[in-house]
Write a structure and sequence with these properties.
By secondary structure, this protein is α/β, with parallel strands linked by helices. The chain is built from 13 helices and 12 strands. The protein is elongated and about 60 Å long.
Length: about 325
């Protein structure tokens, strides 16, 4: 062997282990896409990071997370998703509703996607099956719309004479027609009357609540729309100002002073996709990870708010509560 060939061969042999070593040391990059804002969703982002930690990944140590928040401006989501794809992230966490998942799905057909969406991930075109999703996406489907009749039932236990029930929906949310139908069907059974209220922006909250008062509404049901969840503090404050008893989809509302909430733990969903993210970083494929659904629903009652509204919560309803805020 000539001296030059020997040196070239030796150099290649040295370079390959160095390249492999550098690849092993590379820190995975997660793209975190959310339709909401970091402040109101801080607790949920913490739950995601906790799930990651339990899977062996700690932000700033052996994984990096790049955050993209749309601040309630859904039209920004496609560009934010494209930014993450351009950054060549290892996977994309698309949370804050179906709008985020769709933006991520349209931006890439190869990068793994973890979503938190409503009850119809198949109908939304995100997966082909909940047991074996196929493609590049999986996550958690929160069946909250179907719980609206249950929230109505709980409100009726608290307000047995309530005759007119308003439901607040976001007309830009594809799920709002389904939610409306659920409440219409339920009120038809109970003999109550439904009043439909629509709000697509925060400026619509006040007119919607004023309309409810003018129509002599007895109680309010609030949709699980991500925009409402992000703006839950002013929404709860308006309900209090107009002395409107309300049932909400998540405990985050009752923590903010809302009267009563019933639904799955949204923090639990973020925690679960944190665990899924760690499994994907270890090599598992989204096509093989089933779409998860909630297994526990929690009823939370805010007694302080009930007292402010002049309501006495029946002992039978208190006995059903998972938590009572005093």
């Amino acid at each position: 062997m000539k001296r030059r060939e020997f040196i070239a061969l030796l150099g290649g042999a040295v370079a390959r282990p160095l390249a492999a070593s550098a690849q092993d040391l590379a820190v995975p990059l997660i793209g975190f896409l959310n339709s909401a804002s970091p402040g109101p969703f801080a607790r949920l982002a913490d739950a995601f990071r906790q799930g990651l930690r339990e899977g062996g990944y700690v932000e700033g140590r052996n994984v990096t997370i790049e955050y993209r928040w749309a601040d309630g401006q859904f039209a920004r989501l496609p560009d934010l998703a494209a930014e993450l794809v351009h950054r060549r992230v290892s996977l994309i966490v698309a949370a804050g509703g179906t709008v985020s998942a769709r933006a991520a799905k349209e931006a890439t057909a190869t990068i793994p996607i973890l979503f938190i969406v409503g009850p119809t991930p198949i109908g939304d075109g995100l997966v082909t099956s909940v047991s074996r999703p196929g493609g590049n996406a999986t996550g958690v489907a929160l069946y909250t719309s179907e719980l609206l009749p249950k929230r109505l039932e709980l409100l009726k236990k608290l307000l047995p004479r309530a005759a007119r029930i308003a439901v607040l929906v976001n007309p830009s949310d594809a799920a709002h027609e389904l939610e409306t139908k659920y409440v219409e069907d339920a009120t038809r059974v109970t003999g109550q009357q439904m009043v439909l209220l629509k709000a697509g922006a925060e400026r619509d909250f006040e007119p919607a609540l004023v309309s409810a008062v003018q129509q002599r509404v007895d109680a309010l049901l609030v949709s699980a729309n991500p925009f409402f969840t992000q703006r839950r503090v002013p929404l709860v404050a308006l309900a209090a100002r107009h002395a409107m008893p309300a049932g909400y989809p998540w405990r985050e509302y009752t923590d903010a002073g809302g009267l009563m909430s019933y639904g799955p733990s949204i923090a639990g969903a973020y925690h679960l996709i944190g665990r899924y993210a760690s499994r994907m970083l270890n090599g598992e494929k989204p096509a093989d990870l089933p779409v998860q659904a909630p297994t526990h629903y929690e009823l939370v009652i805010n007694l302080k708010t009930a007292k402010t509204l002049g309501l006495e919560v029946p002992a039978t309803l208190l006995a059903l509560a998972d938590e009572v805020i005093e």
